[in-house]
Amino acid sequence: MLNLRDELTDSFFIKVEGLSDVWTMENGRTTNGFQELPLGSWANAQPGQTYTIKLLRRESGAMIDSLRVEGAMFGTAAPIDPPENPFAEGKILYEQQCSACHGINGEGANAEGLIGCNFCNNVTQLASKIETSMPLSDPALCGADCAAKVADYVMAQFNAPEPSGPIEPLKARAWLLNASEYKATLTRLFGLPANYDWMDGYVDVVKEDGYPTNASKGSVSQTMALYFLEQSEAIVNGLTAAQVGSLSPCPIDQANCITEFTRDFARRAFRRDITNAQADRYLEFTVGATGISQYHQVMIGILNSPFFLYRTEMGSNENVLEGETTTLTGFEIANMVSYVLTGNPPTEDLMRAARNGELNSINSLRTIVNEMAVQPEVAQRLHRFIRAWLLVDEGKWAEIEHNDAVCSGFDDAKDSIESEFTQFLSANATVNNTLSDLFTAQLPEPAGELREFYLSGNDPEGLGPVRQGILSSGIFAARHAQYSIPSPVIRGKIMRERIVCGELKGDIPVIPDLPTPGSDPNIITNRDVFNAHLAEGCVSCHELMDPLGFTMEHLDACGRYRSVDNGADVDVTGEIIATSFDTHVSDLTELSNVFADQRDIQECFASNAYQYYLGTSKEETPAALVDLVADSLGADGRLRDVLVHLLTSENILIRKR
Predict the structure, then answer these.
(1) In sequence order, what are the residues at sequence separation of 6 or more whose Cβ sits closer than 8 angstroms to the Cβ of residue 7?
(2) For residue 208, which phi and psi values (nearest 5 degrees)?
(3) Rounded distance, CA 277 to CA 290, Å?
(4) 52-59: strand order across its sheet
(5) E strands along 299-351, which residues?
(6) What's this model's pTM, rounded to 2 decimal places?
(7) Of all helices (H) and strands (E), which one includes residue 53?
(8) Per-residue DSSP letters for 146-172?
(9) Which residue, of 316, 333, 408, 635, is most buried by count of CB atoms within 10 Å of its CB?
(10) Predicted pLDDT at 457
């Protein structure tokens, strides 16, 4: 409720810090006494969090008067606890109770330094030491919980594990924003709603041989350039004068505002500081335009600049020769950290840190990455990676179709099947979960439409046992199947290549026709059909794939559970071969349990994470860093540790020309 003590019609700029860097506008309010001012809604608000609402009143283009806030009411979901961040909590405790003696950077001040100290090679021993004897003035000040958090911080910040060998710097590159990053960047710039109706034409495509984040594969074709132009025009030309005014640092009806607007908008769009001369080049787009059209044309020009469409990792030294290295600029580091972790452009806080030179060391980077790790956008990016890793990304899933006669109701159930997977990831793929959780945690009990769909199969046991792990999800089973039947070949291939990182070499022979169930007394079930081709000279590759895929025979082509196939019992036994952990398994649950605790799986996950997050190919993945990440995962490390190691590794701030 606001009271401005007059009867004039006003407009208000509104911003909720922590949710948006963009001012939105509420127009045409007549205020005389206390009246309601509706602020709108922000879908990315987290219940339980505190946000600062800022209001600016505009009248005749001037900031005037003051406003008095009597109260406010907000509708939210039930409060939820934010993710734990022991690093951030430990940092605060350390700075309060330990830094005076041990140094703000663990270098030692009035006591022993904490870099490589006697108790700094084991977090449990260090926590015990802190609990029983620290701080020296009064050890009771830091109990068990405090000691554990301080120890976690000291180990992670001052004694991070080192790679076993050298890590080659990444190549200097200009990195095209992929589709999700492009849309996220425009959303941040203009405050677009979550349900904004994007034009068709630019989507992320996950392929078996690479991720849509691969920096070397991003280029702008003529068709894509036209898309960028038309999409930017669709957004910008729809902005009213009031909406443009909400983006402007000055009243847009002032004669010189277009210059100030161009400089401010270009800086925010390019995600770095630029000179006035660099920004003023875009004033050429105003030639022949008047009024609000000037602002439209400038924005369209800036949004089609390579400085908007690409983020660079070239360094500040233009005279570096091929084969030499260069250090990233602060703004390049800010962009790298933000897009890698969240898929979003850097916030004003990150830009400020870049401007102040606070991002140019591994130690400062380690602090920022650890503190950012619990942001909701980091988990969302992690979930996109997991979906891309398993080839169940949104784009591929939307294309999946199954025979309606076999999978009646599948099209209507697709959203529910996807929602089941989303719920699983939300509960078991947080930054504080382990890789093991992905294979061993239970899927949510199906309800509503999904339960009805799962019950619609011909299985006498209905829903079957509780499903365990990502491989038992309906989306994984239905995505990796043929049109009418489940495919142990397709399912086994994705496991072999994406989960085990096994090679499938050799020429593909002429594939014999599969027999029809019932064509032979010994060929009844789907497994019998696919077993037949193993006797047709196709053993070399199929023995690596099919025995893995056979463990999923309980799941039909559309992801429903079954125990009977064509009147015969389903056989779900399988075998892992040509690995360091070869074994027979009784079913998919046992296979998942085996996968959950294997070094090969940890290394494969680390390799895929490196490719996705840092935009490289499999061939460019450094073995020493993969080993380091796998070591962390093998010690029940959290998924956040993967992100921290990737972004704070040796040479992460250096690029090679």
Answers:
(1) 30, 31, 32
(2) -65, -25
(3) 22
(4) 24-30, 9-17, 52-59, 62-63
(5) 310-313, 325-327
(6) 0.85
(7) strand 52-59
(8) HHHHHHHHHHHHHSPPPPSS--PPEEP
(9) 333
(10) 83
356 residue type, one letter: N
Distance of CA 80 to the CA centre of its chain: 21
| Nearby residues of 96 by Cβ (< 8 Å), 6 or more positions away | none
Q: Which of 481, 319, 284 is nearest to 400 (CA)?
A: 481
Q: Which residue has the tokens 């339980």?
A: 48
Cis peptide before 135 (omega within 30 of 0): yes
**Structural contact between residues 557 and 531, judged by C-beta atoms closer than 8 angstroms:** no
Fold of 86-158: Cytochrome Bc1 Complex; Chain D, domain 2 (1.10.760)
**515 or 492: which carries more pLDDT confidence?**
492
| Low-confidence winner among 28-32, 145-149, 615-619, 638-642 (lowest mean pLDDT) | 28-32
Question: 543: buried, middle or exposed (CB in 10 Å: 19+, 13-18, 0-12)?
Answer: middle
d(C-alpha 189, C-alpha 211), whole Å: 26
d(CA 500, CA 599): 10
Please give the helix or strand (H or E) that residue 101 lies within, else none. helix 99-102
Domain span(s) for CATH 1.10.760.10 in the chain? 86-158
Q: How many residues does the chain have?
A: 657
For residue range 21-65, list pLDDT tens digits in order. 666 666 555 555 555 565 666 656 665 566 677 776 654 444 434
Q: What is the mean pLDDT of the chain?
A: 88
- Asked if 31 and 62 count as a contact pair (C-beta separation under 8 A), the reply is no
Coil/strand/helix, residue 69: strand
- Going by C-beta distance under 8 Å and a sequence separation of 6 or more, which residues neighbour residue 281? none
Calculate Rg over the CA atoms of the chain. 28
pLDDT cut 70: percent of the chain above it: 86
Closest residue by Cα to residue 575 from 506, 495, 634: 495
DSSP letter for each residue of 374-410: TSHHHHHHHHHHHHHHTT--HHHHHH----TTTSTTH
- The answer to which of 2-16, 233-247, 532-546 has the lowest mean pLDDT is 2-16
Task: Give 146-170 pLDDT, tens digit per residue.
Answer: 999 999 999 999 999 999 899 999 9
Of the chain, the end-to-end C-alpha distance in Å amounts to: 58
Contacts of 520 (CB under 8 A, 6+ apart): none
Q: What is residue 511's predicted lDDT score, i.e. its pLDDT?
A: 59
Q: What is the mean pLDDT of residues 371-399?
A: 94
